[in-house]
Amino acid sequence: MKLTEIYDIYLKNPVICHDTRKIIPGSIYWAIRGERFDGNTFTGKAFEAGATYAVVDNADYEINDHCVLVEDTLKTLQDLANHHRRELGIKVIAIAGSNGKTTTKELMSRVLNEKIKTFATPGNFNNHIGLPLSILQLTKEYKIAILELGANHKGENAFLCNIAEPDMGIVTNIGKDHLEGFGGIEGVEKANMELFDYLKIHKGTAFVNMDDERIRKNMGDLKTLTYGFENDVDITGEFVSKFPTLTVKINDNINQTEYVIESHLFGSVNLYNILAAAAAGSYFNVDPWQIKNAIESYIPENNRSQIIKRDTNTYILDAYNANPSSMLPAIKDFASYPASDKVLILGDMFELGEDSEMEHERMLDLIEYAQFDVVALAGKAFYQFKDKYPAEFFEDTASLKKWFTEQDFEETVFYLKGSRGMALEKILD
Length: 429
Fold this sequence. Notes:
This protein is α/β, with parallel strands linked by helices. It is built from 15 helices and 19 strands. The strands form three sheets. It has a nine-stranded mixed sheet, with helices on both faces. The chain has a six-stranded mixed sheet with strand order 14-15-19-16-17-18. The chain has a four-stranded parallel sheet with strand order 1-2-3-4. A hairpin with a 4-residue loop joins strand 12 (247-252) and strand 13. Helix 4 (101-113) crosses helix 11 (288-296), helix 6 runs parallel beside helix 8 (185-201) and helix 12 (324-335) packs parallel to helix 13.
């Protein structure tokens, strides 16, 4: 069946499900092959759950005339998403970078929605499957789409750009994430600059963090709107206060305006996420008071800079993910936090390859210098140093949780950060 024919079916049934446990009646079931499963084998269950059509790539599972047989379901999904993006013809902003992509997406979408109907990637639907599914949620009511690009190896951002075809983009920062897949910091830089490469070829516009040297040197002849601490950029920011959450002053040097934002975000690195959202607002002529209100209304959740109060204790839960570039400034910020009793809880940083041992020890050196009241560390990468540094060491999160539940903390502030696989939020269950 031709792609245009599949698109006609999609337009009449504009909901796509690839998990039979989450089938919505009237949807299209898309049979995706995974490492441990073959989605084709669940086609019958999809129809039983209420799917109207099923797209399969194994003729053995073409079980009725509402099955659409294609050569490769994943490629067809990606091609369909690209076709839909072109048919809608809306503005697309792509977000890449090592840290802060999701927070930047959330802030930016809130700012732009003050003036323009804006779509944003739901959750973490940002990879070779999630991005197409995100695009296929777009309808004609949206005028802008903010799409997060999630990559962990070279060439992936370029591939995702060819699906999303962004008009604008932002690389939040270049840091030490997915070093194992990218092959070092230079690989991280090259992979993230695939977005800029696409924008250069297609005459797009970039929002540029001028305080990141690796990003700045790759600007080339891009059309840009710049932000950072420096006075020679379009949007500048400065700290008014950092605790308990960030209050920052924004200077819009294009429109000659300034305003103060009292955010619900913890951590100095979030200034750049705020600046990126302010830059997008300025570009699309959102009024400063609307930018201010939109950012101030954002309350973090889903383990990202999330602040939880229980009894007399305060928990800063920043445990959605971690890498050296995000963990190091977070430790420094928490060391300066004005509280008499502070407990630092960290989990391993994953996907660091041969740099793992060095980067974990680097964090331990900083922790020892900062002198927290209590330090608890979970994971094998940290555990190997248990005889070298003064801290509570645990091989896994379960062991850490057991210890944690036996303690009797009062009027204490906690900071929790670790890679997603550590699931440090479980200790608060």
